[in-house]
C-alpha cells in the first residue's frame, strides 16, 4: 500500500464510488493537462488531505445514496476547502450530504438525454449550447439542491441535473462528462479544473520524463540494474526511461521463446537498440520452450509452462550477471525494472485502503537468494501516456504503437499442440493480416487483432485443380478501451477479402479464413 503520491505532483483526486468510470475520469483529467490519482471512497478526510489535492472529483457508482451499505465518503472531505466536482452518484452524494434532497421518483434516465442549461450555465457550462446531448445512467434524482447552490441545468426527468456553489468551489453534474457520448463532456471537466479550481494545464510527457529520471538516479545510485524486455510497449518504454537515467548501469534481457511474431526479435535487437542505445542480452530459448510444450494442448497447461520457462530463462541470466558483477568487483546488481502501469496499481489495491482485486506479476516470482528492489517508472501512468513518453524517447513507432500481445505469445493462438511448423504457418498469416490492417489505416480503430490457427481442425477446399484438406485461420479484430470489455470491429469487407485472399494463396496448409464476431463478454479476446 502506498500512502504517498506516485509522483511529486499534487494530484486532482478521483474518489472511486465503485463505478467502472473512475479510471476513465482520471484519464480525462490528465488529458486536460492535470495530474490525477484515484482513491477509494473509504479513504478518510485525513488521508485525502495528506495527498494535498488540488481538486476532488467524486465518481459515479451503482448504488442509491439511501440504500443500506451504499458507499459513503467521510463528510469532513467537504470541509477541506478543496474545489470539488460530483458526477452522477457523486453528485447525488454531494447533494444529500450538504443538505439537499435525493429522491427516487421512478423516473429513470439511461443513455442519451437532452440537458437544458438554465441561466448562464455558471463556470461549468457557460458558453455552451443551451441544449446538449449528455449520457445519463441513474434511477434517483436530486430533487432539491442544497442551500446556497444554483441549478445550472435540467432534463425532462430531472429538475436538478447540474448545480454549483461557486463561492465554496462545489460543482456537480448528474450526467457522465467523462464518456465520449456526452457532447461537451470534456469541456465540463476542463471548466471545472481550469476555471473552477484555477489549475494550469501542465501535466505532460516531458515533465514525467524529467521527474522520473531524477527519481531513478536517486533510487539507484551507482548500483546495477536488470530489465526484461518483451517486445511490448510497457517494457520497451520503462527500459528506455531507466536507460536514459543511468545509461550502461542497466542491462536489458530479451528472452526469445520462439513464440514471437514475424520480425519481432529483429525489431528489438536492431531498431530498439539503435534508437535507445540500451545494452541487450538475448536468450535463445526457442528449443527449450518447444521441448516443454511438446504434446501439450490444454490452454492453462500451455500458459503455466510458458510462464515457468520464462522465469527460468530470466533467472539464469540474472544469476550470471550477479556472479559477473561479484567476480569483477563492480557495483552490485540491486534493481529490477518492471513496466507496471497505473491501472495495475489501482486494481492491485495500490491506493490507501483499496481492496485487493487481483495481483499483477509482470516478470513473475524471483528466486529467494536474489533480493532485488523494483524500479517501476510507469506506475503513475496510463497506456496512452506511456506511448507518448515512448515516442518522446525516440522509440520506433512499430514498437510504441504496437497492439497488445500476450506474454505467452503465439503459443495461445494455436489451438492444439504448438510445433515449430505450426508456428511458421501462423507467423506468416499474422504478418499478412497486420500488414493489410496497417495499409488500410485501421490501426487506430482496432485495439488488437489476434490471428488464430485452428491446428486441430481441417476442412476440404479446392485450389488449382486439386482438393485440399487444410486448416482454418481465424481473424479476431476487436475494439476496446481497456480490454476488460470489447466488441468485434466491423472491418471493411474489401480489407477482409484482401487478407483472406493473401492468406489462402500465400500460406501453406491454410485453405480457409474465418471471422470471429463475438463480443467480450462472452468471448475473451484471445482464444486460449
Ligand atoms: P483476454 O483474452 O483475457 O485478454 O480477453 C485481455 C487482454 O490481455 C491480453 N492477454 C495477456 N497479456 N499476458 C499478457 O501480458 C497474458 O498471459 C495475457 N493473456 C491475454 C490479451 O491479448 C488482451 O489484450
UniProtKB/TrEMBL annotation:
Tell me how this protein assembles: Homodimer.
Superkingdom field: Bacteria
Listed pathway(s): Purine metabolism; GMP biosynthesis; GMP from XMP (L-Gln route): step 1/1
What name does the UniProt record give this protein?
GMP synthase [glutamine-hydrolyzing]
Annotated source species: Microbacterium hydrocarbonoxydans
Enzyme Commission identifier(s): 6.3.5.2
Active site: residue positions: 88, 176, 178
Q: Which residues bind ATP?
A: 230-236
Amino acid at each position: 500500500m502506498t500512502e504517498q503520491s506516485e509522483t511529486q505532483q499534487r494530484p486532482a483526486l478521483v474518489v472511486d464510488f465503485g463505478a467502472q468510470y473512475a479510471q476513465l475520469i482520471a484519464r480525462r483529467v490528465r488529458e486536460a493537462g492535470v495530474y490525477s490519482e484515484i482513491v477509494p471512497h473509504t479513504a478518510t478526510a485525513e488521508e485525502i488531505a495528506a495527498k494535498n489535492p488540488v481538486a476532488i472529483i467524486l465518481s459515479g457508482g451503482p448504488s442509491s445514496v439511501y440504500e443500506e451499505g451504499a458507499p459513503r465518503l467521510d463528510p469532513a472531505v467537504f470541509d477541506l476547502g478543496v474545489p470539488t466536482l460530483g458526477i452522477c452518484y457523486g453528485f447525488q452524494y454531494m447533494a444529500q450530504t450538504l443538505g439537499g434532497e435525493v429522491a427516487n421518483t421512478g423516473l429513470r434516465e439511461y443513455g442519451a438525454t437532452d440537458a437544458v442549461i438554465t441561466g448562464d450555465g455558471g463556470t461549468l457550462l457557460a458558453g455552451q449550447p443551451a441544449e446538449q446531448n449528455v449520457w445519463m445512467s441513474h434511477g434517483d434524482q436530486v430533487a432539491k439542491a442544497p442551500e446556497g447552490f444554483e441549478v445550472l441545468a435540467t432534463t425532462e426527468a430531472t429538475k436538478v441535473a447540474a448545480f454549483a456553489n461557486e463561492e465554496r468551489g462545489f460543482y456537480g453534474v448528474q450526467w457522465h462528462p467523462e464518456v465520449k457520448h456526452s457532447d461537451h463532456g470534456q469541456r465540463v471537466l476542463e471548466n471545472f479544473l481550469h476555471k473552477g479550481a484555477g489549475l494550469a494545464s501542465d501535466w505532460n510527457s516531458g515533465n514525467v520524463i524529467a521527474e522520473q529520471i531524477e527519481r531513478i538516479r536517486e533510487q539507484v545510485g551507482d548500483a546495477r540494474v536488470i530489465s526484461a524486455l518483451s517486445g511490448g510497449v510497457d517494457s520497451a518504454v520503462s527500459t528506455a526511461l531507466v536507460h536514459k537515467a543511468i545509461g550502461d548501469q542497466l542491462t536489458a534481457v530479451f528472452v526469445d521463446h520462439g513464440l514471437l511474431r514475424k520480425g519481432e526479435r529483429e525489431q528489438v535487437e536492431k531498431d530498439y537498440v539503435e534508437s535507445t542505445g540500451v545494452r541487450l542480452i538475448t536468450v535463445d530459448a526457442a528449443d527449450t520452450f518447444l521441448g516443454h510444450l511438446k504434446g501439450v494442448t490444454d490452454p492453462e497447461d500451455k500458459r503455466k509452462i510458458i510462464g515457468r520457462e520464462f522465469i527460468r530463462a530470466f533467472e539464469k541470466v540474472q544469476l550470471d550477471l550477479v556472479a559477473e558483477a561479484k567476480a569483477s568487483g563492480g557495483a552490485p546488481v540491486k534493481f529490477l525494472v518492471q513496466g507496471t502501469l497505473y491501472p495495475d496499481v489501482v486494481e492491485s489495491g495500490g491506493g490507501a485502503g483499496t481492496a485487493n482485486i487481483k495481483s499483477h506479476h509482470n516478470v513473475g516470482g524471483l528466486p529467494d537468494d536474489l533480493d532485488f528492489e523494483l524500479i517501476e517508472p510507469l506506475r503513475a501512468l496510463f497506456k496512452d501516456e506511456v506511448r507518448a513518453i515512448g515516442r518522446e524517447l525516440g522509440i520506433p513507432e512499430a514498437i510504441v504503437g504496437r497492439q497488445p500481445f500476450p506474454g505467452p505469445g503465439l503459443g495461445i493462438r494455436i489451438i492444439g499442440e504448438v510445433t515449430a511448423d505450426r508456428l511458421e504457418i501462423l507467423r506468416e498469416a499474422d504478418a499478412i493480416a497486420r500488414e493489410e490492417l496497417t495499409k488500410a489505416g485501421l490501426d487506430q480503430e482496432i485495439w488488437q487483432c489476434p490471428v488464430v490457427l485452428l491446428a486441430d481442425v481441417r476442412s476440404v477446399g479446392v485450389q488449382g485443380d486439386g482438393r485440399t484438406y487444410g486448416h482454418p485461420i481465424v481473424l479476431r479484430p476487436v475494439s476496446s478501451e481497456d480490454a476488460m470489455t470489447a466488441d468485434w470491429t466491423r472491418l471493411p469487407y474489401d480489407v477482409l477479402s484482401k487478407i483472406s485472399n493473401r492468406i489462402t494463396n500465400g500460406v501453406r496448409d491454410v485453405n480457409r479464413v474465418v471471422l470471429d464476431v463475438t463480443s467480450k463478454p462472452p468471448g475473451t479476446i484471445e482464444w486460449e
